[in-house]
Amino acid sequence: MRRALSPSTMVSTFSSPAKRPKMVVSRNTTVNIDRIHSELDVVTIPRSYQTELMEQAKHENLIICLPTGSGKTYIAVMLIKEMAHTIRASIRDGGKRTIFLAKTVALVQQQSDYIRFHTDLSVGKYYGELGVDLWQKERWVDEFEQHQVLVFSAQVFLNLVDHNYF
């Protein structure tokens, strides 16, 4: 399988029953895939619809409804990276925050791990079992100052808004 990453770089994967897979990064470089497994997870080329949706989301609010496995989280991470310059600053200095809502606790954990892995931003995760419903406004202010991306279960975020902590 060959895929172009840029005009000057091609990635090929080879598999042989007698040898471990190798990845040829250029004509002069061969790397054992087992040694860079986690890096392979990072090298993803977006599909055209993912790029189009990310570009559109930069200019307007979107609700993206796509099937499972179609790359919604990847679109979100591309957008987070694109807008990272607006969330790196502290809130006191005018920095913004990214709020990511997930339907279940398992998804809060999965999405926060994915965002943390694919960005260099500080990511917080919040769901009821963590006792966040007992936090006062001061604690929430600290959380928003400490984290640039905050991943919530929908109910915890609703409670936060209902209490005017946001």
Automatic annotation (TrEMBL):
PROSITE patterns: HELICASE_ATP_BIND_1. It holds the Pfam family ResIII. GO terms for molecular function: ATP binding; DNA binding; hydrolase activity. One of its GO terms (cellular component) is cytoplasm. Residues 53-166 form the Helicase ATP-binding domain. PANTHER family: ANTIVIRAL INNATE IMMUNE RESPONSE RECEPTOR RIG-I, HELICASE WITH DEATH DOMAIN-RELATED. This is Helicase ATP-binding domain-containing protein. It comes from Rotaria magnacalcarata.
